[in-house]
Amino acid sequence: MTIPVLLIFMSATGSVLNSPCTGVWYQETDSIERQVLYNGRAWRNLYSKIKGDQFLFSGDFHNGSVTIGNHAYDVSKLKYDIYNDELILVNDKGIVIQMNKEITDRFSLSFPDKKYDFKRLTDSTSGLAGYVRVLYEGDVSFFVKYKKNIMALAVDNKYDLFDQSQKFYLETRDGIFLVKRKNSFFRVLGDHKQAVKSYMRTSRLRISKQEAESFVPAVKYFDKLLHQVK
């Protein structure tokens, strides 16, 4: 006996539509959402003659997601150009595009099996704007800003070279502060500095500019202290 198959077909507005086949229903891909995600312009590589590349991690595409408004889209081919601070992806027609930065709120990348979360900051008064990696987010937040610069004729005095750097930032209710070293980190903590230092000694925690994640336990504890005094 043949068992009938019921497939649901939804329009972009959420309505159910019948297929041309009698008794068969199916679901339409939301083309409007695709148009939002693929809002950008065709991309081409302007830096192919420079050694290295302008991307975070590598020039390969990675699995990730992009958040526009309140909607998160899974993306299978995504990479982050940190020289220009732009997101690059491959759309459903195989065209490489540079996303519209003004509508992109957050994104994530997986490399190789670790998830990296980013958000877009728009307040340039602090000297920090564009995409930043979010290591902790609460009443206080801790960010990493990745950058690449071009070093002229750095390879055999013949070729330019991409050079990567990173800076750490701590955001509090008083603003966003650059963390250059341990002392600048503790200075932002204000009256809670000694309590955080004591917690770190007891927990045998160390912070290092070579390991961004090493700041996170101290930042979390600082956030906890702030909640206690509210």
Number of strands: 11
User: What percent of residues are in strands?
Assistant: 35-45%
Mean pLDDT: 86
Please, how many helices?
Answer: 4
Cα-atom Rg, whole angstroms? 23 Å
SSE string, helices as H and strands as E: HEEEEEEEEEEEHHH
Low-confidence stretches: 1-29
Class from secondary-structure proportions:
alpha+beta
The backbone outline, from C-alpha atoms, is globular
Largest sheet: 11 strands, antiparallel
User: Which strand order do you get reading across the main beta sheet?
Assistant: 1-5-4-3-2-6-7-8-9-10-11
| Share in helix | 10-25%
Structural domain tally: 2
What is the distance, rounded to the nearest whole angstrom, between the alpha carbons of the first and last residues? 68 Å
Would you mind describing this structure in some detail?
There is one protein chain. Helices cover 16% and strands 37% of the residues. Helix 3 packs across helix 4. A hairpin with a 2-residue loop joins strand 10 and strand 11. An 11-stranded antiparallel β-sheet has the order 1-5-4-3-2-6-7-8-9-10-11. It is globular and about 55 Å long. With 230 residues, it is of the alpha+beta class. It folds into 2 domains: 37 residues, no CATH class; 190 residues, no CATH class.
